[in-house]
Amino acid sequence: MSGPAGLGAVARPRMMRVGFSGLLLEFDDTASRMAWNREIQRDPVDGMVDAVMAAQSILLTFVDPVALMLAGMSLQGREPEPLAEGAARLVTIPVVYDGEDLAHAAELAGLSVDALIDAHTRIDWLADFAGFAPGFMYLKPRDLKGAPVIEVPRRDSPRTRVPEGSVALAGQQSAVYPQPTPGGWQLIGSTAERMWDVDREQPSLLVPGDTVRFEAVREHATVTSAGAGADAGAADATSSGADAADATADANDAVVARIVVDATGPQALIQDVGRPAVGSLGVGQAGAADVWGLAEANNAVGNHAGAAAVEFLLGNAKFTAQDDVTLALGGAVGPAQIMQDGNSVGEAPVGEAFELAAGATLQIGFTTEGMRGYLAVKGGFAAEEVLGSRSTDTMSGLGPKPLAAGDVLEVLALADGGAEAQTDDVIEPVEYPIAGEVTVLRYSPGPRDDWFGPEGLEHFEEAVWEVSTESNRVGARLKPADGAEPLHRIRSGELATEGMVTGALQVPPNGEPVLFLADHPVTGGYPVIGVVLEADIRLAAQLPPGSLVQFERVVQFERVSGV
Predict the structure, then answer these.
(1) For residue 178, what are the CA distances in angstroms to 64, 197, 388?
(2) Residue 135: closest CA among 210, 71, 64, 83
(3) DSSP letter string, 525-560
(4) In this structure, CATH architecture of domain 14-76
(5) With contact defined as beta carbons under 8 Å apart, do 521 and 473 qualify?
(6) Which residues contact 77 (CB under 8 A, 6 or more apart)?
(7) Which of 35, 42, 272, 273 has the smallest set of CB atoms within 10 Å of its CB?
């Protein structure tokens, strides 16, 4: 193995739809995939929101189904130029081989522990594509240099938390986890190098096209050359990073009022509509889990529908105004009282603006319906923007830190236009999910329903699934209810990592689906049996632990060959 698959004629991809707004382009060779990615990044398709390159594919997402349908015709006329050969940067990463899966991974690979370490450090790795999380670069062998191919399967059940700096294997790939995240790769070691740092000119230590070498126990990564193989400018590999931005105003923001956080309940976060169009950096959109609940609160106070608000989990939150403010609640909200001098002076409505005088307190009780409520303030809450958004991404760590008792929230002046920038959509009331009761979610099968076959798809739809207590903003973890069977694959082997969308129903080998929500990874390596309709994400984001789910098929998209 001397390099990436042949530079030469650029092949056309196969296409398959992902839900109603995604189009997956599949390739048989690395050079064609990278050439098409460069072409699409250079000249985006009309209506395209984002393009995420993965192991054998590029996932395009669009503003609506019409734009998706027109994309195929647009791509028919494209003739990407082959990539020119050029020197690649060499990045060396120090590793301590102390991973808890090291011995097991060696066994799975048919090697001794020493032989696995020798092979991992001898191979020159190609930085193929970014995904899963900011700074997470998928690496594949560029030059074996006499070492055996290392191939190990993913874990049957992904971990809910993998430590930052973990060096890992899956399939024939390697990677370094840039921050604590869920993950299903086999952990073989650790590094102290920062793979992602928003304070660097190039936040990611690695860029596609780099050559990566792992070396045992060195203090710093080194970059020894830079050439045409990199898709972005060289980073300062040894620069130190900073913590995620605090929930404070940018220098140019006009602060007009302040609100004190007295209690947060299980979780309270600053959220707006997130970070679209940065998937190529391995950064997910994040934002409010229930954007309809966010819009409901913002519309009521005259804000733009996507202005920054507080997302609180299950209620039991309390806020005291230091200045007179206009507030509104949206989403799933328990009983809310306006308190003055320890006494209730009225109920706070949902979906309507109300005043909170200086010194008064808003006390939000526990909700038994749904999970997530939203508190908007006229003008919006201040927070430093990271990659164009004030939202907290719990998986990547980008954005403001989770709120804590004693925090002071700063309120901005109402932006020019204010109410004129609201959504045109009417936020219709819904019945939020309740623990123990069944919620029906509509979905579109594919793109990997063929991994389960017609009988598997039928079982998926007939079964009742229970929402696990391990669910969070990354995804709702589902397990069979009432002793039902999990899903069984009819195909063996590993799926090549590919782009993921919100609402994707990813199925790990244990057969228990994970329904991806706002903070889901950009890419994933388990087959997606279907995608929940965008309109039903509102309900999916509100599923409490112990609630029950059934899936109703809406449409079956046919796979399409060619562009």
Answers:
(1) 32, 9, 21
(2) 210
(3) SS-EEEEE-GGGHHHHTT--TT-EEEEEE---PPPB
(4) 2-Layer Sandwich (3.30)
(5) no
(6) none
(7) 42
**Cis preceding linkage at 454, omega within 30:** no
CA 286 – CA 133 distance, rounded (Å) = 11
Q: For residue 219, give both structure tokens.
A: 């203090």
What is the DSSP-derived secondary structure letter of residue 102? H
Pairing between strand 354-356 and 343-347?
A: unpaired
- Band (pLDDT 50/70/90 cuts) for residue 558 is very low
Helical H segments across 422-500, by residue range: 453-462
Q: How far apart are CA 194 and CA 204, in angstroms?
A: 9
Higher pLDDT, 87 or 369: 369
Q: Strand pairing partners for 94?
A: 215
Residues 6+ apart with CB under 8 A from 465: 478, 479, 480, 481, 513, 548, 549, 550, 551
Q: Is the dihedral of CA 319, 294, 434, 459 positive or negative?
A: negative
**Position 221 pLDDT exceeds 70:** no
Enumerate the CATH 2.40.100.10 domain ranges in the chain, comma separated: 90-223, 438-553
DSSP helix/strand/coil, 126? strand
CA distances from 160 to 205, 343, 471, 518 (A): 25, 42, 9, 16
> Length of the chain in residues, anyone?
563
Q: At what angle do helices 102-109 and 113-122 cross, to 10 degrees?
A: 80
- Cα separation, 317 vs 266, whole angstroms: 9
Q: For 424-456, what is each residue's pLDDT tens digit?
A: 556 788 999 999 999 999 999 999 999 999 999
The superfamily CATH assigns to domain 438-553 is Cyclophilin-like (2.40.100.10)
Compute the CA torsion angle 390, 391, 393, 399 (nearest 10 deg).
Answer: 20
pLDDT of residue 8: 55
DSSP class of residue 46 equals T
- Locate the DSSP E strands across 394-445: 408-412, 438-445
CA pair distance 52, 515, nearest whole angstrom: 19
CATH of region 90-223 = 2.40.100.10
CA distance 466 to 477: 8
Please state the φ and ψ torsions of residue 525, each to the nearest 5 degrees: -115, 10
The Cβ-side half-sphere exposure at 40, using a 13 Å CA radius, reads 30
Query: Nearest Cα to 376, choosing from 313, 324, 306, 423?
Result: 306
Burial (CB < 10 A; 0-12, 13-18, 19+), residue 333, is buried
pLDDT tens digits for range 48-87? 999 999 989 999 999 999 999 899 889 988 999 987 766 6
Which residue reads 């700096």 in tokens?
165
CB under 8 Å to 492, separation ≥6 — which residues?
Answer: none
Residue ranges, CATH 3.30.1360.40, the chain: 14-76
Q: Contact at 8 Å (CB) between 544 and 371? A: yes
Between 429 and 5, the more confident residue is 429
400 token code pair: 């403001």
- CA separation for the pair 394, 12 (Å, rounded): 37
The helix, strand and coil proportions of the chain, stated in percent and rounded to the nearest 5, come to: 15, 30, 55
Dihedral sign (CA 441, 449, 517, 27): negative
